[in-house]
Amino acid sequence: MTTVEVPHGSRSVVLTVSAVVEETADAKSIVFAVPDELRDKFAYKPGQFLTLRIPSERTGSVARCYSLASSPHTDDAPKVTVKRTSDGYGSNWLCDTIAAGDTIEVLPPAGVFTPKSFDHDFVLFGAGSGITPVIAILKSALTQGSGKVTLIYANRDEASVIFAEELRALTEKYPTRLTVIHWLESVQGLPSADQFAALAAPYAEREAFMCGPGPFMDTVHQALQNIGMPRNQVHAEVFNSLSGDPFADHTPVEVSDEEAADAATVEVELDGEVHNLTWPRKQTLVDIMLAKGIDVPYSCQEGECGSCACTVLEGKVEMENCDVLDPEDIAAGYILGCQARPVTDHLKIEF
What is the pLDDT of residues 172-205, one digit of tens each? Predict the structure, then answer.
């Protein structure tokens, strides 16, 4: 049994694992018990993820992000689904070690891979364990909206299909609203952009959400571009391994008098509230907001998870690492708050 008693930072909490469900030979779901006093802190949106602190003999711990496969609209408790990867320390440790009754340190839900509304139709793409945030959106759309949902789901073979029974039950329950299209590499080979474009063509007017390995995502992006789907209708979830420690408390950066005198100003809108702040050139947007006690959304602070994504309405920033954003996202004004530093003297930003 693994036991964690005290969290390593003020943002994280220790949760008890209430159940471990074997989904396939190499994938397990971990269900968490959330005590009543943490219900508000762990309220989440479909498509968001949790960051888990996994013990490591070499480094003390590693931080890994796992999507919530549960929906707050259909499931009693939050659960993440983890698929074992050959070189994945975190996924192997969880699949081999974690059991009901264990405790593990967790950061609150984060991420922006979630629909703003369920009042329209969706086309969803998942590959392998990329189904996890996608099925949360799928279940929420079916129960909270009235539109149609089509899922295009790629796997190696039939035995690799995570949530096969759940998807079968949902198609029976919503026969006129849900369509599931399976793509099995063992039968059809690797999909091409042209093949996915042919499957997605009837749904070009819908909103698209996708999650899966990099090559799969590239293929879907190309397919949707081929059928003329506008870029603002396409949403992708990308995870990279975190090298830092997002569980450590944030340390305010010291600002010299010279830096303060040269600071930019920024108007930030978050959750309907507007904050007017000074922004020293060497600090990130997340830095200055945390220093003012503002509850800014962030997780990794490395530019790898997208939790702090926001939009520049006026002004210009520079970013050290923004690989999680597509060039089209950046062109549309999206930035990462944990990487953004001001270039212009005044900026206006919206979360």
Answer: 999 999 999 999 999 999 999 999 999 999 999 9
Going from N- to C-terminal start, the domains of the chain cover 13-109, 122-237, 257-350
Closest CA to 260 of 241, 243, 282, 232: 282
Strand partners, 125: 152, 210
- Can you read off the two tokens belonging to residue 53? 């602190």
Candidates 3.40.50.880, 3.90.550.10, 3.40.50.80, 3.10.250.10; CATH matching 122-237: 3.40.50.80
Which CATH code, of 3.10.20.30, 3.40.50.1010, 2.60.40.10, 3.30.1490.110, is assigned to 257-350?
Answer: 3.10.20.30
Which sign does the torsion angle of CA 236, 237, 243, 246 carry? positive
- Between the two ends of the chain, the Cα-to-Cα distance in Å is 41
Dist. CA 156–CA 190, nearest whole Å? 9
Residue 338, helix vs strand vs coil:
coil
How far apart are alpha carbons 35 and 227 in whole angstroms? Answer: 47
H-helix segments, 211-253: 214-226
Q: How far apart are CA 60 and CA 89, in angstroms?
A: 13
Query: Phi first, then psi: what are they for 23, rounded to 5°?
Result: -85, -45
Residue 293: count other Cβ atoms within 10 Å of its Cβ: 7
Tens-place pLDDT, residues 24-73: 999 999 999 999 999 999 999 999 999 999 998 777 788 999 999 999 99
State how far the Cα of 314 lies from the Cα of 335, in Å rounded to an integer.
Answer: 12
Residue 203's nearest CA partner among 182, 176, 230, 185 is 230
Cβ within 8 Å of residue 181, ≥6 positions away: 150, 151, 152, 153, 199
Same fold, 13-109 and 122-237: no
Domain 13-109: which CATH class? mainly beta
pTM given for the model? 0.87
Beta carbons of 125 and 56 less than 8 angstroms apart: no
Q: Give the three-class secondary structure for 295.
A: coil
